[in-house]
Amino acid sequence: MGNKTALYDAHVACGGKIVDFGGWDMPIHYGSQLEEHHVVRQASGMFDVSHMTIVDLIGDDAKRYLQYLLANDVDKLKDVGKALYSGMLNEQGGVIDDLIVYNMPEGYRLVVNCGTREKDLAWMNKQADGFSITLTERPELAMVAVQGPEAIAKTKQVLTGAKGDIISALKVFQGLESGGWMLCRTGYTGEDGLEIIVPEEDVVTFWQQLQAAGVKPCGLGARDTLRLEAGMNLYGSDMDESISPLQANMGWTIAWQPVDRDFIGRSALEAEKASGVKTKLVGLVLEERGVLRGHQKVIVEGIGEGEITSGTFSPTLGYSVAMARVPTATADTCSVEMRKKLQTVKVVAPPFVRNGARVYK
Amino acid sequence: MSNIPGELKYLSSHEWVRVEADGTATIGITDHAQDLLGDVVFVELPEVGAEINSGEEAGVVESVKAASDIFSPVSGEVLAINEALEESPDLVNNEPYEDGWFFKVKLTDESDLEPLLDADAYSAVCEAEDH
């Protein structure tokens, strides 16, 4: 038996089909992954993401520490609650994890992946040497993502008063606290919505109230098809410790300025850039029948080979999309080895879908 | 528990076959199979008129989760395919034994049916997989 979130019994009560996900017993769907996907694109759905690891950081050197630890620069975070997406790199420039860091009134809050929890915490503690900081994991906090065009309105039906006012005032990619909760306008679906950090003892009631307000429970299956349509990377599939942000479509998360900011992996990234980045992460589109799947081989005629890192049927588009790591010189088509035959596919820049509609060219 | 009708015959690879009154055989995948696959998004079927052999690949079913070969439990000429699956592959999930059928075959050899599993034997296969 794996770890269980505070919502486990609620998932079972909602008919959730439970699977192991990085050591956690989580719902993959509650009946139909496709219906859950569509409800997030068209109305509102909610996901239990309590398995994610939340770490609070305080101390005199908190900012300086993060400026060393992360490839993106927390100096960009001017407003309280503002969030930043970043890679946490090793010395070779490989991605140890991708994370979100919030600028909190008394320090910072980091949300990292569950599957990488132990190595992340070990790395963060190791790098803390010489910095006056304190890292505190917050396993007693649950997290619910409410996503979709109706997500904010529905959540405000449940959270009135101070919390509702905060939700109304939230800017995109900002998170603010209220009474031990944290309301964040973030997500992993390509839709507007919230990720709400809730004390464990309050989360079951909150979940049930959202459900009563018409927000549909959605499982990790729909979460994966939604994030892939939105062109968002999945750690462990689209990048890992052997892949630099430059090869993972995460170049935008590297803050090169100021040039004298020494962050872990910087010199490796500079060397990689100077010698020419060899591969890139692109989007693939197959408008005919068939589904692109992770690990299928990609052949770029006259140039070389690559591999699909994540592939799925796109419920919004009605055909298959994927992300693939291919030689940098790859142009606008390539072939994929699918079930014994070669299939020509289009190469595009992700995302594929945003706010319910196709966006790639 | 998945639904396993008593009047059908099965392959351990989760296809079912029903012998109709006119002697033709209808083939599909079981409730257990559709549950394992999750939402079905494409079904690739043999061509009408094609000769297929028992135990050989006769098509592919693709779900959001995985692609899976379909094996034919019997040999014979393909008389019809379920064209409704083109527009509504979810029929495989919702009605695996009725409107979610895959194709119909003109049985050439009744003895093809003998090695197939009955409902009890197939049920045991599913239970063994679940544990």
Oligomer, anyone?
heterodimer
Beta-strand percent range of chain B: 25-35%
Helix content of chain B: 10-25%
Assign the CATH class of chain B.
Mainly Beta
Average per-residue pLDDT of chain A, rounded, comes to 97
Overview of this protein structure:
- The complex is a heterodimer of chains A (361) and B (131).
- Chain A is of the alpha+beta class.
- Chain A has helices at 8-13, 33-42, 62-69, 117-127, 151-158, 161-169, 200-212, 220-229, 266-275, and strands at residues 17-21, 24-29, 45-48, 53-58, 83-89, 95-104, 107-112, 134-137, 141-147, 175-178, 181-184, 193-199, 216-217, 279-286, 297-300, 304-314, 319-327, 333-338, 341-348, 353-354, 357-358.
- In chain A, the strands form five sheets. A six-stranded mixed β-sheet of chain A has the order 10-11-12-9-3-13, sandwiched between helices.
- In chain A, a hairpin with a 2-residue loop joins β10 (175-178) and β11.
- In chain A, α5 (151-158) packs antiparallel against α6 (161-169).
- The longest helix of chain A has 13 residues, at 200-212.
- Chain B is an alpha+beta fold and 131 residues long.
- Chain B has a single domain (9-130), classed as RNA polymerase II/Efflux pump adaptor protein, barrel-sandwich hybrid domain (OB fold (Dihydrolipoamide Acetyltransferase, E2P)).
- In chain B, 21% of the residues lie in helices and 33% in strands.
- Chain B has helices at 31-37, 84-87, 91-94, 119-130, and strands at residues 9-10, 15-19, 24-29, 40-44, 51-52, 57-63, 67-71, 76-81, 103-107.
- Chain B has a six-stranded antiparallel β-sheet. In chain B, strands 4-6-7 form a three-stranded antiparallel β-sheet.
- The radius of gyration of chain B is 14 Å and the shape is globular.
- The model of chain B has no long low-confidence stretch (mean pLDDT 94).
- The interface between A and B is medium-sized, with 15 and 13 residues.
